[in-house]
Specification:
By secondary structure, the protein is an alpha/beta fold. It has helices spanning 5-8, 33-44, 77-84, 86-110, 128-144, 175-188, and strands spanning 22-29, 49-52, 68-69, 117-125, 149-151, 163-172, 192-194, 201-205, 208-212, 217-225. The chain has two domains: 5-65 and 175-240, FAD/NAD(P)-binding domain (3-Layer(bba) Sandwich); 68-172, no CATH class. It is built from six helices and ten strands, in the order αβαββααβαββαββββ. The strands form two sheets. It has a six-stranded mixed beta sheet with strand order 7-2-1-10-9-8, with helices on one face. 33% of the residues are buried. The structure holds flavin-adenine dinucleotide (FAD). Flavin-adenine dinucleotide binds at residues 29-35, 52-55, 59-62, 65-69, 198-199, 226-228, 231.
Length: 247
């Protein structure tokens, strides 16, 4: 099986297995990017954090992702504006832009060496029909406040491009270098990271929550499920809402 570049070009982690019952202000289930950034921010504000990862950190979806930080997800803003309204589409765009700015800020403040680069991002087409959709997308994205551009040529070695939308100032990075550095910082700040420690269940109690692994439990005031897909059915019953989609 092919191994992602992010995984093959970084060292393996060796965090311990959970071997006793423990307590924390916050227990984060899962050790991907959502966990790493959340744990970074929580420990920065002085919270006691325990992270439980069933395998090894950064080997899930994050370690196998494209590692781009963009607000551009296909042609999405025309759809968001039509289906959910202008304000909703603007919130989506602004929160995506803020997420990239946050990553940039953390990387600069912590001097994380993770090949972070600001780059333009493009969606392009070779079809006349889609070119019209791209023109409409450029128009709505500009109204939402981002300086998108309609181009007929892009700086990529591709033939027959008819139209493209450019989002300026997006980013790319080595996602595992970033994630591993964040967990190292969390660890240095006293955050506890456990690998090969699968969470089987969690329940609410009078003081917060109890999180159960095979042999131990964590009592925590708050629990954050950062498992990509929810592993526990409360709150929200998301398993009922999940389905495979075709784009
Ligand atoms: C092919 C692909 C490419 C993508 N590319 C991008 C991209 O370029 N840019 C972008 O922003 N997003 C991208 N995404 C979206 C991506 O999913 C998120 O950006 C992000 O990496 C998800 O991080 P996560 O922490 O939620 O999940 P993960 O990285 O999957 O982390 C979840 C962790 O939880 C652990 N876990 C699961 N169950 C348990 C349990 N019971 N107990 C303990 N631990 C458990 C898993 O082992 C895993 O390590 C891509 C997605 C896919 C599928």
């Amino acid at each position: 099986m092919d191994i992602s570049y992010w995984i093959s070009s970084t060292p393996k982690t060796n965090y311990p297995i959970l071997e006793k019952d423990m307590e924390a202000e916050v227990c984060i289930i899962g050790g991907g990017l959502v966990s790493a950034v959340t744990a970074y921010l929580l420990t920065k504000s002085g919270k006691e954090v325990i992270i439980l990862e069933r395998e090894q950190v950064g080997m899930g979806v994050t370690g196998n992702s494209t590692a781009k930080l963009t607000s551009q997800h296909g042609l999405f803003y025309q759809y968001l504006n039509n289906e959910f309204g202008f304000d909703f589409a603007k919130k989506y765009l602004d929160s995506n832009q803020e997420a990239t700015s946050l990553a940039k800020k953390i990387i600069e403040e912590e001097q994380i060496d993770c090949d972070f680069e600001i780059q333009d991002s493009y969606v392009f087409t070779t079809s006349k029909q889609e070119a019209e959709k791209i023109a409409q997308e450029v128009s709505i994205v500009k109204k939402l406040g981002l300086n998108a551009e309609y181009l007929t040529k892009i700086p990529l070695p591709l033939k027959n491009i008819l139209a493209s939308i450019r989002f300026p100032d997006q980013a790319q990075l080595h996602i595992r270098k970033y994630l591993l550095s964040l967990f190292e910082i969390v660890n240095k700040r006293g955050g506890k990271i456990f690998e090969h420690t699968k969470v089987l269940d969690a329940e609410r109690n009078l003081d917060g929550f109890t999180v159960y692994t095979k042999n131990h439990k964590i009592n925590a005031k708050k629990v954050i499920m950062a498992t990509h897909y929810p592993i526990i059915n409360f709150p929200g019953f998301y398993f009922l809402k999940m389905y495979q989609g075709k784009k």
